[in-house]
Amino acid sequence: MENQTRVELTVEFESMEEMKEIFGILDENIHLIEKGTNTEIASREGRAVISGNMQQAEMAKQVILKLCEQFRQQEYIDENKISYFLDLAGDGEMQSGLEAMQGVVAVTNRGRPIKCRTLGQKRYMEAIDHNTVNFAIGPAGTGKTYLAMAKAVVALKNKEISRIILTRPAVEAGEKLGFLPGDLQSKVDPYLRPLYDALYEFMGAEAYQKLVETGVVEVAPLAYMRGRTLSDAFIILDEAQNASMAQMKMFLTRFGENSKVVVTGDVTQIDLPRDQQSGLRKTAEIL
């Protein structure tokens, strides 16, 4: 019965600017917290007043306090971050989630620190640290490839490996390379462009070009991996949902001594013909 007792909790803001940022435009942030915690939240003389049962009110207070910390650290506050904090509070993992956002994974060429934004991303980074082969399956925009590439660049700079190999199947939305103009490199470049862009961000275009010319960094279609043994390398297979079962078997037998492999993909975005099975989906089922 204690959790059903209606209580009123308050959060003091350091400034009106902080309160405005936490409440959001037309109180949209607070409405999201109210909906996620089944509470009522009002602004009163520089404070947030939370009304609801004890457990839910405490959860709402915890989320607001963490948003205040984000504001004071000049971090961006948006709907995704609020939803994430609500999930953490509901699962009792708020502290673990916040700790995940503290460490720096890598630094871009312009000096911008790259940090994990979620507990899932933090666990992904830890998995890469501790495992030789890693699979990251999830929707677009969750940082699967970007964070893996950050790890690869850091490993290269720390001389943990001697080269980076980035690859992806040259198949998307049923398109055939033979119908595209130009030589083979011209045909595959559009498919590899997202990988180039990420490398430019971490290395700078000039440094990237030098590393490509010396073979330290290689960006190539998956078909180029056949018949090779890739040792002392950080290998990333992107868009792996578009690899056939035969291609996946070929790829997973390519890495050699002191290599690390990350396979990323989204099994809801398969562009293979209907009669062809996704190697990523089948591998996930087997493993």
Q: Note the overall shape.
A: elongated
Strand numbers in spatial order across the main sheet:
6-10-9-7-8
Q: What is the percentage of strand-forming residues?
A: 15-25%
How many separate domains?
2
So what's the CATH class of the largest domain? Alpha Beta
* Sheet having the most strands: 5 strands, parallel
Write down the CATH topology of the largest domain.
Rossmann fold
Summarize the structure in words.
By secondary structure, this protein is an alpha/beta fold. The protein folds into two domains: 2-100, K Homology domain, type 1 (Ribosomal Protein S8, Chain: A, domain 1, 2-Layer Sandwich); 117-286, 3-Layer(aba) Sandwich (Rossmann fold). Helix content is 45%, strand content 18%. The protein has eleven helices and ten strands. The chain has helices at 16-23, 28-37, 54-72, 79-91, 94-100, 119-130, 144-157, 184-203, 205-213, 245-252, 279-286, and strands spanning 6-12, 40-43, 47-53, 104-107, 113-115, 133-137, 163-168, 217-221, 233-237, 260-265. The strands form three sheets. Strands 6-10-9-7-8 form a five-stranded parallel β-sheet. A three-stranded antiparallel β-sheet has the order 1-3-2, covered by helices on one side. Strand 4 and strand 5 (113-115) form a beta hairpin. Helix 6 crosses helix 7 and helix 10 (245-252) crosses helix 11 (279-286). It is elongated.
